[in-house]
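Input structure tokens:
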């Protein structure tokens, strides 16, 4: 009977979960719904698996088809603002789109954690003050850019397991300058100046934070009422609530001394006039930190300015967008192949992302070439065909062609289909797709493409007739001769920083820019944005004058720069970087953690820090080392024992024969390599993947020589 009861309870739980999942709407072929995260009158937010991002969990926000024009405008505005922000405390957006039934949507990073209402319910007063400090740190990047969140409340504040805080739902984000002011928000948390129709600057967010802290501490909002209008009237005219220790429901956690200070801060935040509140989020954070006993830990995501916040480089982005628009409008002479070129670290990928989001906001079909090693060519091709199928949803004829492509892809495994024939069919499919809507194909880092990938790219370019509304936009380092290797096209050069631009960047970091400092930086970095920013961050972190940094000497070669940087990475950062290099492809945080062999590693945070310093990039399928040459350099520096162990763990994760063989060889598993290697190399040769076959054979030969 005991087991029967357990079975019945399990059956009931599974039935409930199945019913909840069945209630989820269809979200296209790309997104698999997991659960509903939230819902409102105009739309909903879902947790989904994004097939094009390697099955990564993302949050998908969607409006209903009948959503009002006002909400559609706010929705687009939210996406545009988030697309322009890059900060570890702000969720990164991925894609914007429209489904055939008219629903618009966008996806962003899924933030794991509890909202402040849930997290605060179990906190003591000291912990609540600590969370308030974290909220201030999450507001800083917004306020620094002159933006106001506009809807700060417990449900829009996520406390993560690592103790940091993320803000979500930027539906009402606006400029603090007031050009786009509007009376929107959640009334129980809205500042009086907003309720009166004023613009409201960052101090309106501070008022909302005060109302939020009041609610978490007492269990009620500062001003109650049975209608929004009555609540609003109390915000405007009622006497300010006086918070005392007797009102606070949280335990003091042996920190009763800070309650008085906390009550005073909340009281000031709820002042009727903005001038009576804290002047900015920095002063508020300092006041909250002063309540805490001992030293408050430094912010690991300090406000280091991003290049594009200080240096206006829109001229290149605007030129690229204009060229793409001309091609998609079928302007005479417009090139179908466009390439942004420049040194490593000049921001080429950012131009690609900005152009992608520009296109998606205009319902242009965007296809992305996921970067993969030569051994991953089949997976690369499979992902690309899956994108084509997703773009063909609603068109039965195109879907039939797509199913034929999938059959051709399966034929590659048995050598029943040649690669050239499959490429020709893909080219025809893209041409048909472009007849229904404009198509933009994005390829980051052309220099890393394998011979087979280049073959496909050449076929696509050659198959684009002048009247076809389709374009290919890629990026390449300046030293890569893409015109010879791939095809002729139009180039857009992204230059290094001038002395004037370096001066503005130094001033943004330090508050001043001495001429000698600027000259020294330019001499030692050549104006490379990545090098300049890295040195400025080093100077900030070490609290030493820039001129005293031992690493200031400009590397004669790029390899010397990275070699010097390897030496200063933490062990945790080095392990994650080594794991990414071993995997040799885009990988999720879970995969990277598995290969490091250390559970509990905060991989997402480590990867974000490594990306910030130029080591990693986040692509459609996860994290990867920024360039192939850098990956080779990191691999060469991995200790042999660690390399063998990591390849052994990567072998267990690999699903394709070629990658299993690659990892088995480096893990010194000679038995597996002898059993499977030769047949796999022959299969790669038959499907036309000659480069991949050669790479595999070279690895096998090296293993045999080691024995």
């Amino acid at each position: 009977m005991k087991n029967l009861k357990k079975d019945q309870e399990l059956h009931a739980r599974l039935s409930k979960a199945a019913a909840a999942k069945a209630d989820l709407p269809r979200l296209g072929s790309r997104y698999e719904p997991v659960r509903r995260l939230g819902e409102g009158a105009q739309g909903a937010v879902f947790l989904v698996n994004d097939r094009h991002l390697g099955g990564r969990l993302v949050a998908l926000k969607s409006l209903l088809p009948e959503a009002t024009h006002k909400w559609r405008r706010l929705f687009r505005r939210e996406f545009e603002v988030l697309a322009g922000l890059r900060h570890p405390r702000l969720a990164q957006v991925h894609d914007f789109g429209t489904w055939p039934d008219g629903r618009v949507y966008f996806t962003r990073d899924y933030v794991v954690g509890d909202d402040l209402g849930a997290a605060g319910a179990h906190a003591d007063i000291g912990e609540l003050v600590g969370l308030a400090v974290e909220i201030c740190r999450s507001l800083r990047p917004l306020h620094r850019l002159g933006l106001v969140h506009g809807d700060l409340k417990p449900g829009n504040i996520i406390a993560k397991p690592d103790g940091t805080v993320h803000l979500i739902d930027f539906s009402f984000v606006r400029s603090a300058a007031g050009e786009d002011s509007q009376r929107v928000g959640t009334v129980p948390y809205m500042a009086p100046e907003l309720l009166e129709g004023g613009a409201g600057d960052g101090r309106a967010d501070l008022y909302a934070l005060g109302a939020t802290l009041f609610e978490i501490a007492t269990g009620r909002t500062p001003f109650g009422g049975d209608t929004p209008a009555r609540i609003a009237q109390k915000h405007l005219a009622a006497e300010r609530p006086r918070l005392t220790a007797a009102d606070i429901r949280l335990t003091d956690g042996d920190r009763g001394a800070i309650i008085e200070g906390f009550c005073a801060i909340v009281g000031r935040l709820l002042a009727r006039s903005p001038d009576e509140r804290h002047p900015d989020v920095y002063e508020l954070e300092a006041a909250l930190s002063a309540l805490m006993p001992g030293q408050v830990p430094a912010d690991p995501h300090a406000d280091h300015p991003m290049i594009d916040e200080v240096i206006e480089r829109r001229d290149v982005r605007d030129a690229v967008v204009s060229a793409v628009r001309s091609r998609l409008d079928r302007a005479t002479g417009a090139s179908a192949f466009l390439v942004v070129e420049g040194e490593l670290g000049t921001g080429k990928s950012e131009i690609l992302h900005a152009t992608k989001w520009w296109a998606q906001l205009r319902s242009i079909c965007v296809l992305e070439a996921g970067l993969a090693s030569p051994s991953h060519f089949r997976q690369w091709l499979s992902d690309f065909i899956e994108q084509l199928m997703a773009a063909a949803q609603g068109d039965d004829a195109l879907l039939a062609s797509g199913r034929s492509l999938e059959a051709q892809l399966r034929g590659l495994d048995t050598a029943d289909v040649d690669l050239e024939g499959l490429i020709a069919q893909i080219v025809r499919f893209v041409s048909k797709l472009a007849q229904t809507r404009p198509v933009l194909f994005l390829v980051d880092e052309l220099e890393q493409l394998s011979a087979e990938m280049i073959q496909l790219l050449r076929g696509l370019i050659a198959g684009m007739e002048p009247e076809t509304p389709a374009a290919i936009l890629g990026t390449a380092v300046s030293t890569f001769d893409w015109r010879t290797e791939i095809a002729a096209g139009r180039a857009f050069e992204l230059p290094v920083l001038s002395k004037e631009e370096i001066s503005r960047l130094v001033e943004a970091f330090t508050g001043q820019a001495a001429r000698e400092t600027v000259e020294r930086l330019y001499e030692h970095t050549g104006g490379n944005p990545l090098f300049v920013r890295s040195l400025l961050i080093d100077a900030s972190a070490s609290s030493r004058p820039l001129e005293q940094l031992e690493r200031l000497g400009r590397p004669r070669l790029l390899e010397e720069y990275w070699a010097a940087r390897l030496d200063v990475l933490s062990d945790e950062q080095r392990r994650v970087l080594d794991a990414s290099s071993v995997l040799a492809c885009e990988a999720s945080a879970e995969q990277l953690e598995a290969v490091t062999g250390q559970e509990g590693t905060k991989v997402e945070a480590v990867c974000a820090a490594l990306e910030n310093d130029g080591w990693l990039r986040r692509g459609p399928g996860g994290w990867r080392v920024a360039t192939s040459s850098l990956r080779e350099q990191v691999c060469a520096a991995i200790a042999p024992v660690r390399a063998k162990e990591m390849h052994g763990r990567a072998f267990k994760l690999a699903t394709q024969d070629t990658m299993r063989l690659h990892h088995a060889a480096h893990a010194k598993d000679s038995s597996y390599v002898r059993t499977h290697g030769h047949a796999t190399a022959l299969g790669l040769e038959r499907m036309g993947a000659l480069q991949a076959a050669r790479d595999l054979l070279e690895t096998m030969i090296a293993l045999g020589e080691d024995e």
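The first strand starts at residue 31 and ends at 39. Residues 2-22 form the longest helix (21 residues).
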